[in-house]
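Cross-check.
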Amino acid sequence: MSIVKKLEKKLKEKGATVFLTRDGDYDLSVPYTINRKRSDLSRRSNMINRSLCDLYISIHLNADTSTTYHGAQVFYDSKVKENKKIAELIQEDLKQYLYTTREAKEKNDMYLFHRLEKPGVLVEIGYITNPNDRYLLTQDNYQDKVANVLTNSVIRYFYRK
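Predicted model, tokenized:
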């Protein structure tokens, strides 16, 4: 959430209107629901679809049973044609400035993606199960760097559009 808040601030400083689906450490699920994760994602997607946003960026931390996986990666679906372009542009910037070797990846089986009608991507900004990524993600200067990279990616996307 601290990276999201930094990104929000930097985008607003550049003149963007930013809408967050949440502003704290909580989910949006319906109370006492059986599948909290699905309820949370459903409510988030409804908020995004009802908004006037031109682009959404869903920011997450990745995890795996192996501690060797590392680096930021962007995922997109093919439902909206612009998604691939957005994903590749952001991934290019992540590779250049955060030194990840990962590639943008199409993923059409994610619940959130099935529900969204707006252009956008999911950005996994690192693996909390990798000791180095986890350390970096807790550092204020690295969080600023991630927010700067994403801000510049968004600006580049809209200038190229």
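The first strand starts at residue 56 and ends at 62. The chain has a mean pLDDT of 92. Passed to J.P. for a second look.
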